[in-house]
Write a structure and sequence with these properties.
single chain; 60s Ribosomal Protein L30, Chain: A; 2 domains; alpha+beta; globular; 6-stranded mixed sheet; 220 residues
């Protein structure tokens, strides 16, 4: 059943829920997946985003999300200045990607540690989003429930180890998927759960051998 915010969109800074609120959320998700303060961002706009991002303020919205702002933050209009003052460098480009939603953006973020992440997401209307790819691996994250993004080596038994931690702590899994670049390489486990998860549990998962990072993405 549709909720009121699925129809009219969230409380936000305008002018468009798709071009502003959705873009903020994609940027914020990318920052969460990086897991640290970004110092550099490359942003590639696709489709409608590519044609209208300056006029609709999508550039400011994406940067606002990367800075950690919410969709109703009054600083969104000044986010480019905030980025400059905070040491975040960024580049905007228009790119083409086949078979993607018209409001799609590809983000590559780099943190102070040198860690990088590539996230491709789409703003699908009413402030709703879909995260489509993380570091080249296909995912499907709606942002409607809390998600764990676990980047790990493709070692047998990883799903079982992570699931045991969640089960032992009374956390119910409602959706789980696993994608990998190649056998034995880097894999991405996406787990959507009912309710919230404590940072302490995140740390337990991150301490599992062969887990490279574990990020919590809160519901939007």
């Amino acid at each position: 059943m549709l909720g009121v915010f699925d129809i009219i969109g969230p409380v936000m800074i305008g002018p468009s829920s798709s071009h502003t609120a959705g873009a903020v959320r994609i940027g914020k998700y990318a920052r969460s997946i990086l897991g640290e303060k970004p110092i550099r961002a490359w942003i590639g706009f696709v489709g409608s985003f590519a044609k209208t991002y300056r006029g609709h303020g999508t550039d400011k919205a994406i940067i606002a999300g990367i800075l950690g702002m919410d969709a109703d933050d009054g600083r969104i209009r000044d986010s480019l200045d905030v980025a400059a003052a905070g040491g975040l460098s960024y580049t905007f480009e228009t790119i083409e990607m086949e078979g993607m939603h018209p409001n799609t953006v590809s983000l590559e973020l780099e943190g102070g540690s040198g860690r990088t992440v590539n996230v491709i997401g789409s703003s699908v209307g009413g402030g709703n989003i879909l995260i489509n790819r993380i570091n080249g691996a296909e995912v499907l994250i709606s942002g409607k429930s809390t998600a764990l993004i676990i980047i790990h080596l493709d070692i047998p038994g990883m799903i079982g180890k992570v699931s045991n931690v969640l089960g032992d702590n009374g956390i119910n899994i409602n959706k789980i998927s696993l994608n990998r670049e190649e056998k034995g390489g880097i894999a991405i486990m996406t787990i959507e759960i009912d309710g919230d998860i404590e940072p302490a549990i995140q740390q337990i998962i991150q301490s599992i051998p062969n887990v490279l990072s574990a990020s919590i993405l809160n519901a939007v």
